[in-house]
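Run folding on both entries below.
>entry_1
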Amino acid sequence: HTHTRTHTHTHAHTHTHTHTHHHHHHHTHTRGNSHTYNEQLKQELAEVDQRRRHAKSMLKSEREEVEKLKKEKAERDDLIKRMSVRMVDAGCLPSSIAEQVADIVK
């Protein structure tokens, strides 16, 4: 503490400080002792970590989902092309329409 501050002032200062500090503890945790605080902190960190891991695995599965959809689309487009070619060969479909279909699925 600086020498200019009076004892009472310092006292008042520490009092408000502890009060706000205590309030903060009380607000976030049931008990204001450091042990509980550390436990709480550990728990919060673990939760954050878990969420992060969850988000990562979500992203991973989402990416896999997208890849799967891409593959399925490619297979479907391929099927449509082959079908339209077969239909043209069978004379069921004018080749111009088959070309349009090929353009659509390109």
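>entry_2
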Amino acid sequence: MPAKDFLDLEEKKNLQKALKEEERAEVRERILMFLLLNDGKTQREIADFIGCSLKTVAPWCVHGDPNNLESLEDGRKNGNHKKATEEYINLLLKIVDEDPKEFGYEFGRWTAARLAEHLEKETGIKLSGSQVRRILRRKKYVYIWAKYSLEDKQDKKLRKAFKEKLDEYLRLAKEKPESIQVWFWDGAFKVATQVRHTAPHECGFSLRVIRRRAWTKKGKRKKVNGQRKRGRVNVMGALRYNDKKRVCFMSKKGNSETFHEQLKKLHEEIRQEWINLGNLPEDFREKGPKIIIILDNASYHKKKDVIEQVEKELPNIRLEFLPAYSPDYNLIELVWHSAKEYIANREFENKEELEKVVNQLLNEGGLIIKWSRKLKNKGNAVNVT
């Protein structure tokens, strides 16, 4: 056994540095063995300190080289994957992000087996699919569902300009809540199947059960009724940015007349709120807050006669239309998503029962929302808060 302080100062510093930087736990453990050995600990004391057997400690203390960290790696674990050179791994990481079509293949995605086969042609190194899979996992790759993207349909310049305008509105709403309010208005999603991302229009809760993940015993699967039922509850809603106040209206259908009526109801609620603060009703038009409504480009939102009526009857309201394919800028999407999650896997007997629960969630404070969650635009997550 080496004498105490057998390491010189430089060797000791190098080992201490390696102990902090080494990612592999087993190598860190072996470095620690040498440092403890240098402090005069016996192999038995080192084994007791680390919590392993003497047979584990002894070989490394005898055959390990403190000046060569590679000697502290377990050569017995060098499997076939070691045939993968650095060039092979770098090429793998490059190809896995490429479209298979670029290499003349008809399939649309890479699997580990396909990558192994292709790289064998490129490099002459033959690995199995499982070996390629292990390499990718070590490089922090995961095998998950691809996401739908609307980026090719979005106008990036319009989105950027609108985001800047929205940020300015939100800043003013925070600094001068008595002068300006920002409301996100939306609807048009179907709880039973999917969210239809088209801000301020009607939102439908269907009687069909929506499936979500749930805890169940391994090997079994929770079952929900997949039968379609007739019956639907339509909702239009608005969300105020500053205090997250919700105003949601049940509606029979979504059209320009309904939209106009619901806007008038929202306008009146804000007006009454302002009057209750001690202001005079006749002063609301001139001194009341400007109401910015963020909404989508549904055709009945932009009907000329509706816009003219809003400008004439509701002068405090200003409609700001989202860029196309930009539901991720509409904060009320989180309300619909949270409501959808809340009633997932539940079966409703009739429309009345569904409407009662929806009303409790949206209008009676029954829905707790995690506002820190990100809004999703077909897979592209953006947090406007």
